[in-house]
Design brief:
heterodimer; A: mainly alpha; elongated; B: 129 residues; mainly alpha; 3 helical TM bundles of succinate and fumarate reductases; 81% helix
Chain lengths: 131, 129
Amino acid sequence: MSHKGGHGKIQTTLARARGHGSAHHGVESWIRLRVTAVGNAVLGLWFIWFVKKSVGLDHAAFTELLAQPCNAVAMILLIVSVFYHATLGCREIVEDYVHCECMKITKLLGTYLFFFAAAVACIFSVLKIAL
Amino acid sequence: MSDIKQRPLSPHLQVYRPQLTSVTSILHRATGAGLSVGLVFFTWWLVAAASGPEAYGVFSSFCRSLLGVALLFGWSLAFYYHLANGIRHLIWDSGRLFKIKNAYTAGYFVLFFTVAMTALSWVCIMGKY
């Protein structure tokens, strides 16, 4: 192919493979979405087990279950992975369907702030229960 | 300007017969969006647990209400679908499963997995509800 070395001769093959355009982070969020997807899949299996264990427990029994180090750590990892994945996913949806620049920025900002705040609330809650 | 107007338009959603591949694709987005909304509920769960028995009781009784069960059922469907179809997407990302026949087989497997796991999960917790 004629563009083996990138667009014209400006980009090297490596630069093209990395997908860095003028903003310098071409495929970064694509990769992050996949990395967190793998994290979600693994932690999701733990989550199925954890939810099944939690159903029907009263407050004391549930907090005791969550306070176990393995569960607390898994839950915090799940929170980080899932909320990050959700933020990236929602961003993709907003970028695809919202075309007015002003609305897009507002919705993206709202999404980021909301997920960040909720993730902090979740992690704080787990730590409060576990420590 | 007139040139732009006369360009042939590519056929869009409304003229396509829904296919398994396109339906599973848009469902992946829809379930992802639904699960993101579900994170509000997830946050309520953990914050209620950290707040004390009273708050946790309010959360628990909502889970047992008709609306609560309906929402949780929907989220369980969305969870299993997004999990299975997400793995299908990861396999695609690795460059496999692109033959139409294989993509369809995997698509049917995703739908089967979703229904089977949702049913199994609810049967498993039925006694504890």
